[in-house]
Amino acid sequence: MDEKVLSWNFPGNGFTRENGLDTPDMETFKKDPISSLAREICQNSLDARIDRDEPAKLVFSTFSFQTNSVPGKYELMLQINQSIKYWTNNKIRNESIINRLKAMQELLKQEKMVCLRISDFNTTGLLGVKDNDSTSPFYMLTRGSGVSYKAGTSGGSKGIGKYATFVVSKLHTLFYSTVTVDNESGFLGISKLCSGIKVIFDKESNKLIDTKELTIGEGYYGVGIENKPYAGTLNLDGNFSRLENQTGTDIYVLGFENSEYWQNTVIVKILESFMVAIHRNSLEVEVDGVLVNKSTLENVVFSDIYQTANKKTENLIKSQFVLLNDENVHTEFLHVERYGTVELKIKDFNKTKENYSTNSCTFVRYPYMKIKELNQVSYLPCSAIAIIEDNKLNQVFRKFENPQHTNWEFNRTDYTKEERKEAKELYSDLQSQILEIIKIVLSNSDNTESEFEGAENFLPDESNEIGIESNTQQESEDKPVISKRRQKKNIDSVGYDTNDKGESLQPDLGKIDDNGDDLASVPDGQNEGDGGDNRPGSEEKSITDGDDEVLKLVSLSGIKPRIIALNAREGKYIIKFSHIENENECTLELKLLDDVGTSYPINIIESKVNGVSIEPKKNVIGKFPIKENQLNTIEIIVDQNELFSSEVKIYAHK
Fold first, then answer.
1. Contact indicator for 12, 214 with CB cutoff of 8 Å
2. Beta strands of 67-164 (E only): which ranges?
3. Which of 120, 47, 53 lies closest to 394, judged by CA?
4. Distance of CA 624 to CAs 615, 616, 627, 650, Å?
5. pLDDT, tens only, 138-182
6. pLDDT band, very low/low/confident/very high, at 561 (cuts 50, 70, 90)
């Protein structure tokens, strides 16, 4: 091979192993290829952002172009033919590989093919493209597998995410073209096919001849036997031209798998994974003309883009938007000593708007990419988000992410026992703090209502400026009105309610599991006693002295007690209610309801009313005063270790 010639080169395997089309690296991203592509590309661009006052800008754009314009088209077709020849004559004939190779062959024979261009701006470009330094970002992206140049708090670290882009190419073929901040430029093609019969050029016969050796299945379109990048830039899109001073990278995906709604799939995944980055103006994305940035975020989130998404994903996206934009959100900063700060936001929803709740806490880490969900944080309709900043805690957790960056796996054996222990303990402690705060916030909430109005107040009347057709038939709760912050209640230094004397009314929330895997505050199920109406029954009870009636227990009307499970396994609950009148002496009666509605007294072991301990008598707590329109909190421990349907009645002594 001429060392100065730009051509395809498929190296031999040295008579070692052979590869099929479905290598482990590719398989990692096949479950949801378009979504994987969106996550990996956005993460890489965020990591390479230059001006921190401006967003990294990404463009996903499809176009058709002549297949004759594919660089090295006939060499690529030759290698596909060599692979078909090998797999056809193989004793173990793999029809799947043969059929897919033939589809690639037919695609290159067509007059035109669809290509996806992915371009980023306000990024460093792929540094090292000029000298092909083995420690540079360019080299690691194009040659590395299982290694990465990224460190510190960068989003990616495994060196595997790049394979997500190959999965969405029918030809498994990409071209990288880059302009860097070091005034470098260059491009390189990569094709991840499968092993085939290696050919060499025979000078005597002036022909290509087959060898006995197989290829590794991976080829490079570069210069010479070292497969160096070609100096300059490559542009396959006639409608695009990168300016000389525009640093960044262009990726061309040949034979793009542009399935129906691919555009919306990309947008949804970006919103789900990078909502915080967009909201904080770190990221801006354009997908075939649809602009998603801080200014358009609201309209995009509440537009008709969820055709390929499940309801859970849609709720998660809308919930994240509310958490980041509604002033009526509880916000705390958790300080992990020596490791940094985590910002926690919590929002409760009433039952008519609980479709906006996820009952989970979303973990987001710098550069503001969603990693995972902590599920079942409460029975009450709520959502939370925990944002880990650019700090040491971020560095610790990053090491333990899986290749898809969708979970932290603290038992990974590529780190020492001490490192695994450190990460587990940090995560367990963080979960415990988050769950405890969520319990407190929800138990102290005197208003689970969220103010919503019709979506017509937010979506364009006639046409949608981002290019997605507006849905004028959306229900009234399709979009929240970001409400004003409520007047603060009296709280102590750690966020608990205080009484008129300034004394803390801290509920006994109990401990939570600390196994690092399942730290949900309550077990699976539904508390059917939460927020229900008083059940029918006697409205009055008499207390007599001999034959004379001296006192009546009158059931208070208009009260809808809420019973909240803090830890059902330990029998810990909170009952909350208010009343429109002052009452000097009240009594609470708690009963268990069976499947047919029959009530039975339930033993209350301990009780506190508005922070004051009162000794219960079997299933009755009394006597205690209540004030007009005051939220009353009754903490109880019962002799049940699982959830139960309940009947709560409150009487006044008249």
1. yes
2. 112-121
3. 47
4. 11, 12, 10, 11
5. 998 898 765 455 444 444 444 567 888 999 999 999 999 999 999
6. confident
